[in-house]
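Example record used in the benchmark description.
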Amino acid sequence: MFKFIALLLFSSAAIAQISPAELLSKIDKFRSPYTYAQLDIKIEDYKKDKLKKIRHYTVYHQDGQSLVSVLDGADKGNRILLSNKGMFVAPKHSSRAVRITPIQRLLGQASYGDLAGLSFSKNYTASMLKQTDKTITLALIANKSSATYHKIILLISQDDYRPISAEAYLTSGKLYKKMHYSIANKLLKNITYTSSNQYKKTVMHFMSIQKKKLAKRFLTSKGMRHTIR
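Model output (structure tokens):
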């Protein structure tokens, strides 16, 4: 009994030494272990468990900024940019980029920001809400316009700080959607987004990831359509 109590106190003390900001950085490692990365992503949209649509994307993630290439569907050839100056879409037949907001719907229950915004630590300020012997609950408040949601309640594992689930809220305080995370080999494998009515869901699959650094010229509204080699 004494050993059990001592171990519990030691675990609680260890958690107390980790700040919410440090926890966000650890969580981000599951989403992308590289500062500069190329990710291949597939999104499946379901209605009443029936697959309605599949889309594929390549995401170039650059330390909090992202450039996305749409690989199929009606929007094939479009580029999406999440930069320090905002979020933009460049249609394939236009030389001009159009400003959008990260919360705009991309496909089903997934928003543009869900696809491009891979970093919690760059866009949110975290505070501790609750701790148990198995989980930690954090409250994330947006601190940049590039953040997809105003507020996120995030549940993570106490063992390895992997994300388990989250609830996203609008500025009005209304629950907007729920997310459930699947982890394999210390990397994020998929995120399932569900609406409040539960019969609609969208699954974002992280198919592969590798180190890749783009030149800074791609991360501008004028340069986002340049050919990537």
